[in-house]
Write a structure and sequence with these properties.
about 325 residues; alpha/beta; D-Maltodextrin-Binding Protein, domain 2; Double Stranded RNA Binding Domain; 10 helices; globular; disordered C terminus
Length: about 325
């Protein structure tokens, strides 16, 4: 194999991730030339409404998968949190890179922390998961939709459209953008549980290509693969979409897995939380076990209701 083509979104963060994988592959396989196939995904095109209102799944992955199925790419690099649990026939999610810091981060030009925000302050996020957790802790806040790429979101904050916004820490770190924000507060995993797959990259390949499978396997981190498998199994079992008000996060420390989950309404009410701590050797099926436990507590009904009331203040009659 002389050339390998990586499908990637064309956003700044996606390109950083794709070039990182390109450099890693070329250092391991110096005889292989790696090229990028840069694609504008549907999720990057729709900037005037929350993705949760649009329906369907794979807003940031489908076009990349289509390119692989059409023979125009051998491998795709995704932010794992954007990858649906269903993978199209002919493709396979074979590797997960080592996960970095999974925290969300509070950003403001005026206030030092989430606690310092005054009553009625406007906080920007499009994530139903963040909206749910913010309003559970601070029901007095006004949570306002926030779309656009990272730079657009930071510009809107700087212009004063929001008192604060919440983003993933890792993306800002990778793009070296944290230094430009006067006040930042990294939120603990107990304060703001991340989504499935946060801070890891998913490597998807054409299933029939054994050489690309071999290359992809060199990118895999076994511990991260286990933790994210737990998260993805949980999401798959409860049938939640990528933008549903669901938080789930598995972390590994000293051979012990801590798995946190949270489901509720986007307005911060009807919250169901659960944490399981288990030895790593007993965690292969932990995601499904957690799902079964929470289903018995009625979370499917909570999730169904949550999805019907999401963004009801801005939902048009017809899209």
């Amino acid at each position: 194999m002389e050339k390998l083509i990586i499908a990637t979104r064309a956003s700044d963060l996606a390109l950083w991730q794709a070039y990182h994988i390109k450099d890693t592959i070329e250092s391991t396989y110096p005889n292989i030339e790696v090229e990028l196939n840069k694609i504008v995904s549907n999720g990057d095109k729709i900037l005037d409404k929350p993705l949760a209102l649009i329906g369907g799944k794979g807003h940031f992955t489908k076009e990349l998968e289509d390119e692989m199925l059409a023979g125009n790419a051998d491998l795709a690099v995704h932010s794992l949190k954007d990858v649906p649990t269903f993978i199209p026939e002919g493709l396979e999610l074979v590797a997960i890179t080592k996960r970095q810091d999974q925290s969300d981060v509070f950003l403001s030009h005026t206030y030092k922390s989430l606690e310092d925000l005054p009553q009625g302050a406007v906080v920007g996020t499009t994530s139903l998961r963040r909206r749910m957790q913010l309003l559970e802790q601070r029901p007095d806040l006004k949570v306002k939709d926030l779309r656009g790429n990272v730079n657009t979101r930071l510009r809107k904050l700087a212009e004063g459209q929001y008192d604060a916004i919440i983003l993933a820490w890792i993306g800002l770190h990778r793009l070296d953008l944290l230094k430009d924000i006067p006040y930042t507060e990294k939120l603990s995993l107990d304060m703001m549980i991340p989504p499935m797959g946060q801070a890891a990259l998913g490597i998807e390949i054409v299933s029939s290509n054994d050489k690309v499978r071999e290359i992809a396997n060199t990118l895999n981190n076994a511990e991260t693969f286990l933790c994210t498998k737990i998260e993805r199994d949980f999401i798959s079992k409860i049938g939640a979409g990528c933008s549903a008000p669901v938080a789930c996060n598995a972390t590994l420390s000293s051979n012990t897995i801590t798995f946190r989950t949270m489901i509720g309404y986007p307005d911060g009410t009807n919250i169901v939380k659960k944490t399981i701590v288990k030895d790593k050797s007993e965690c292969e099926n932990l995601g499904n076990e957690m799902a079964d436990m929470m289903i018995k507590e009625g979370i499917l009904e909570v999730l169904q209701k949550a999805e019907t009331i999401a963004f009801k203040d801005i939902r048009p009659d017809r899209i």
